[in-house]
Design a protein that fits this description.
This protein has 232 residues and is mainly α. The chain is built from 10 helices and no strands. Helix 1 (22-36) runs antiparallel to helix 2 (42-54), helix 3 packs antiparallel against helix 4 and helix 7 (157-168) runs antiparallel to helix 8 (172-199).
C-alpha cells in the first residue's frame, strides 16, 4: 500500500489461520478496492483491516459445527449416491471434522497435519463401524461413501480450480503452487485413509460392498432438498 500524501510506500502482510469467515473475506476485498480507487489512504485502510481481523464471527461455534454435519450428511446422498446409513455416519464424522478444525484454531501446528489425522481416525472408525455394526445388521453402507462425505471439507477443489485459473491468467508461480498444494493435500487424505484401514488389521476390508443410491430408489427430485441443505 502507498500513501500518496506523504510519499512513502510500504507493504503490510497479515497472516491468519484457515477460517470459514467469508464475511471477513468480503470486507477485506471491499477494503482493497477502496484503496485501489484511492478513496481512503493507507493508514485508514490499515486501521480498518485491524478492525476486520478483530471482528468476532457472525455465527457461533455450534452453528459452524452443525454446518459440517449437514454438509457431510447431504453430500453422501447427492454426490456419492449413498443411502441413509451412509448419510448418518457421514454427518456424525463430519461433526468430528468440524470439532477438530476448531481445535486447530487454538493449536495452529495441528493444521498442517489435519488431513492425515482426521482421515486416519475416520477411516479406522468407518472400518470398525461397517464390520461390527452396519453390515452385520443388514444396513446398506459403503466405505468410500462414508469416508469421502465425512472429509468433503478437506477436499481441495477450490485450490485446484483457483490454481488452474491463475495458470490460465499467466500467474505461473502462484498457480503452480496452488496446484501442487492441492495434489499434496489429496495425497495426505489418501495416506490417512490407507493408514486408518491398516490400523484395523484384524478386520477384513469391505470395499467391494454394493452400494444402493437412495435417490435412485426414491426419485432424483428429492436431491433438491439435500442440495439446499448442503449449500445452506
Amino acid at each position: 500500500m502507498s500513501d500518496h500524501v506523504g510519499g512513502c510506500c510500504g507493504q503490510v502482510v497479515l497472516k491468519v489461520g484457515q477460517s470459514l469467515n467469508c464475511e471477513a473475506l468480503y470486507l477485506v476485498d471491499d477494503l482493497a478496492l477502496l484503496v485501489i480507487d484511492r478513496l481512503i489512504d493507507a493508514e485508514e485502510a490499515d486501521a480498518r483491516l485491524e478492525d476486520i481481523l478483530a471482528m468476532p464471527p457472525r455465527y457461533s461455534k455450534w452453528v459452524q459445527w452443525l454446518s459440517f454435519t449437514f454438509a457431510s450428511f447431504a453430500c453422501a446422498i447427492i454426490f456419492f449416491n449413498g443411502g441413509w446409513a451412509d448419510a448418518v455416519c457421514a454427518g456424525m464424522f463430519g461433526t468430528c471434522v468440524g470439532l477438530f478444525r476448531t481445535l486447530t484454531e487454538k493449536y495452529p501446528a495441528l493444521n498442517k497435519l489435519m488431513s492425515v489425522i482426521v482421515t486416519t481416525g475416520i477411516s479406522f472408525a468407518t472400518t470398525l463401524l461397517l464390520n461390527y455394526y452396519l453390515i452385520p445388521n443388514g444396513y446398506n453402507a459403503c466405505y468410500f461413501d462414508i469416508m469421502l462425505s465425512s472429509v468433503v471439507w478437506l477436499l481441495c477443489g477450490v485450490s485446484l480450480t483457483t490454481g488452474v485459473i491463475e495458470l490460465a491468467n499467466g500467474s505461473m508461480i502462484s498457480g503452480a503452487a496452488r496446484i501442487f498444494g492441492a495434489i499434496f493435500q489429496t495425497l495426505m487424505i489418501g495416506f490417512g485413509m490407507a493408514i486408518g484401514g491398516s490400523i484395523a488389521f484384524w478386520v477384513p476390508a469391505q470395499y467391494d460392498t454394493v452400494c444402493v443410491s437412495w435417490l435412485s430408489e426414491n426419485g432424483q427430485a428429492y436431491g433438491i432438498i439435500f442440495f439446499l441443505m448442503y449449500v445452506a
